[in-house]
Amino acid sequence: MSKFIRLRRGLLAAALSVPFAAGVAAAGKPVSAWSAVDPMVGTGGDGHTFPGATVPFGMIQLSPDTAMPDFKHAYKWAAGYQYGDSSILGFSHTHFSGSGHSDLGDVLVMPIAGDVRLDPGTPDQPGSGYRSRFDHKSEKAEAGYYAVTLADYGIRAELTAGTRVGWHRYAFPKGKPAHVLMDLRPSIYDYDGKVLWASLRVRADGTVTGGRSTRGWAPGRQLFFAMRFNQPMTSRMLYNREKDIVYHGFGGPGNRAEDRDGQTGRALEGVFDFGPLDKPLIVKVAVSSVSEDNAIANLDKDGAGFDFDARRAEARGAWEKALATVDVDAPAKTRETFYTALYHAMIAPGLSMDVNGEYRGPDNQVHTAKGFDFYSTWSLWDVFRAQQPLMTLLQPAKSNDFVSSLIASQQSSPFGILPVWAYQGMETWCMIGYHAVPVIADAYMKGIRGYDAKAALDAMVASASYGPYGGLDDYMKLGYVPIDRQPEAASKTVEYAYDDWSLAQMARAMGQNDVADTFTKRAGNWRNSFDTKTGFVRARKSDGAFREPFDPGQAGYGSDFTEGNAYQYSWFVPQDIAGLVTALGGEDNFVKKLDEVFDAKVDPKAFAHVEDITGLIGWYAHGNEPSHHMAYLYDFAGQPWKTQERLKTVMDTQYTPTPTGLVGNDDLGQMSAWYVFTAMGFYPVTPASNEYVIGRPFVNKVTLNLPGGKRFTVSAEHLDASHPYVGQVTLNGKPLDRTYVRHEEIVAGGELKFTMQAQPNKTWGTAPSARPSSMSKVAP
Fold first, then answer.
1. Where does the record place the Glycosyl hydrolase family domain (predicted)?
2. How many whole angstroms separate alpha carbon 116 and alpha carbon 287?
3. Which of 52, 45, 134, 54 is nearest to 89 (CA)?
4. CA-to-CA distance for 618 and 599, rounded, in angstroms?
């Protein structure tokens, strides 16, 4: 967010003093949406979320780090924090929310009372380094705020965030010397030689600046910072520890410390001394991917003054405004899960642009955004499914900026293609597909048009036609990706086919029928990987034969699929489910095979070698994205009551408002967006179709507060455990017999009303005309 709701300090004090308990305010009314958020959800297990302070789509994610291990052990600490840990290494300013890969953890700082140690030490040896033990009872995590007591120092640390600035407030014990240590060596996903270069200096006015370049997930990434304190330093010491680098231990015995203005090298630290303090120390830090000067400018504009409480109020106001797009009536725990999911869905993509409009692009050069804000942190293989479609409903103005950012990235790409998995403007080439295409197409089809549509379509076509990428040259020649030339070929074929379909939708809407015809034909390429004999999507070799031997349960690296197997990927034909029904021999066979997926007895050890496949219900793996649309597919075969049954199982088993409440990586909000949509009663199975497939609601009432003052309400009568099925549905008071609602119907405002009942209604939504659309018509 570029603007915050500003509150007077008196209002802040009143707001922060209101007591809350068990999801109910003191007056007996439901707590606010902001109060229902618990940033601790997902910080344990495989959720990979962070508990620290950020604002919606902000540039700063200021959070505690409990470990920054070497790359072989980094998976559990992809967000820097694991709830099961007992000590804190420090507080860094950049984090991914729920990613399946790790990096960032930039500008690590640690307040210290008393003696200073230069290395973090080990958790099992208290006092061996600068890390400190903590107790969860001392933690307080809110949307936009985090606090903890560092037990080994007796320091109360508080964090909040603005758009480009992280704010710290440290209350030191009286009588002990206060220090702030900055360590530029460690990073999440740390390994020997990751830091290519770093700089650290203290300027004449006391501003600390610096930066570093790393060769982590995005090679050659650069990040700069500027830091100021509300009290003058009594002394400082800058260290270059490069002589004896031991990265896994973060140091060695050969240290070179000099009390001078600056240091450069690959292993830098700074210790800033303040003597005994009788009031809290305020620290503010701005970052920039462009330069130190830009970081200073960001700090000057977005970080004026040292009023921590006012900044905390602004962060809260930003989240209250973002969360106010949805009003939910549900039991306390459900509201907590819902609003926490909505919170997680609005963290990324993050702003990656300085106050002067400059940003770093995928060519590692500096560019200037004109007429839009540049955003990065794109886990596109995940977020095209639900997180970005949710933003088209709740944040359409942001969607304009998101699309403009994708186009700008393509225009500065050395390869001329859209981002695949990018952050801070830089590309990682992680995962498969060209899923920026459906993100753009979905926004365009929904009437979001605040960008150059021709440039967008050109970027989409360029990405879908770049032969060297992921076997696209063979895909364009053969109609599939051959497994003897490309790994994970079956997944690539079906994902490319869907992306092609979404591109065709936008081209057709723009009157570019020749482009639409080309990509509509390519959208049928899923059939080239479908084996009618086995009923599975499979990988083919360049000679046309399916690869043998074939095991539909085989998953992971070296198989035909990306983070999945044939049981999961054979259903990824969202653009043509009716065609898949026909290919499987009709509705009964389709439903039978889908039932077999959910009802199978599967040993979780079968996926022990694939970290991301979690949350098993049979072969269905809710902890990973290829499964996310599958429960809704019964609607396409005329059995919507089975969708309702499967969704209840997923919602009952895969989400809880606890640190381990996410069964898999949140993947920058995708897991959370799935929950938000499903709780409301519908889901975007096929982005760019403008249709949301109806499941069943899991909240009593939800109201979308849409732009222009429009409101769309979903309500459910008789919603309880004994009434799990949809009896009837009305839209604006009229019976709705189809199993989908259109985007245009939602944004126009109105009411979707469900009446729930104890037994399945096997007549509602069963007719062929009631089903969501597909490329192919339903077979007679």
1. 294-757
2. 26
3. 134
4. 5
Fold of the 366-466 domain: Glutathione S-transferase Yfyf (Class Pi); Chain A, domain 2 (1.20.1050)
Altogether, the residues listed in the chain come to a count of 780
Cβ 271 vs Cβ 237: under 8 Å? yes
Distance CA 754, CA 714 (A): 8
The residues, any chain, with a CB within 8 Å of residue 542's CB and separated by 6 or more, are 474, 478, 482, 484, 485
Cβ contact 752:552 at 8 Å: no
Contact 509, 693 (CB under 8 A): no
How confident is the model at residue 11, as a pLDDT?
30
According to the model, what pLDDT value does residue 650 have? 98
Say if CB 178 and CB 113 are below 8 A apart.
yes
Continuous segment of H or E residues that includes residue 214: strand 208-214
231 secondary structure, DSSP code: S
CA distances from 282 to 58, 122, 144, 412, 516 (A): 21, 28, 17, 39, 57
SS3 30: strand
Which pLDDT score is estimated for 21? 30
In tens, the pLDDT along 565-591 reads 999 999 999 999 999 999 999 999 999
Question: What are the residues facing 428 on neighbouring strands?
Answer: none
Dihedral sign of CA atoms 537, 541, 543, 549 in order: negative
Backbone angles phi, psi at 218, to 5 degrees: -105, 100
At 148, is the secondary structure helix, strand, or coil? strand
**pLDDT digit string, tens, across residues 710-737:** 999 999 999 999 999 999 999 999 999 9
- What does 237-294 look like in DSSP terms, one character per residue? EEEE-GGG--TTTT--S--EEE-SSEEEESSEEEEEEEEE-SSPEEEEEEEESS-HHH
Minimal CA–CA distance to 525: which of 561, 495, 567? 495
Q: Look at phi and psi of residue 750 and say left if phi exceeds 0, alpha if psi is from -120 to 50, else beta.
A: left
| Residue 387 DSSP SS3 | helix
Q: Is 624 left (phi over 0), alpha (psi -120 to 50) or beta?
A: beta
Residue 354 pLDDT more than 70?
yes
Q: Decide if 388 contacts 502 (C-beta within 8 A).
A: no
Fold classification of 9-322 is Beta-galactosidase; Chain A, domain 5 (2.70.98)
Instruction: Say which residues have a Cβ less than 8 Å from residue 104's Cβ, sequence separation at least 6.
Output: 61, 80, 92, 94, 95, 96, 187, 188, 423
Query: How many Cβ atoms are within 10 Å of 468's Cβ, its own excluded?
Result: 9
Q: What is the mean pLDDT of residues 756-778?
A: 94
> Residue 182: which of 109, 246, 123 has the closest Cα?
109
| CB-CB neighbours of 8 under 10 Å | 10
Report how far residue 402's alpha carbon sits from residue 374's, in angstroms, rounded to the nearest whole number: 7
Query: Two tokens at 291?
Result: 């330069």
**How many angstroms separate the Cα of 157 from the Cα of each of 88, 172, 336, 396?**
11, 9, 25, 36
Using CA atoms, how far apart are residues 713 and 328, in angstroms rounded to an integer?
10
Where in the chain are the domains? Answer: 9-322, 366-466
- The single-letter code of the amino acid at 499 is D
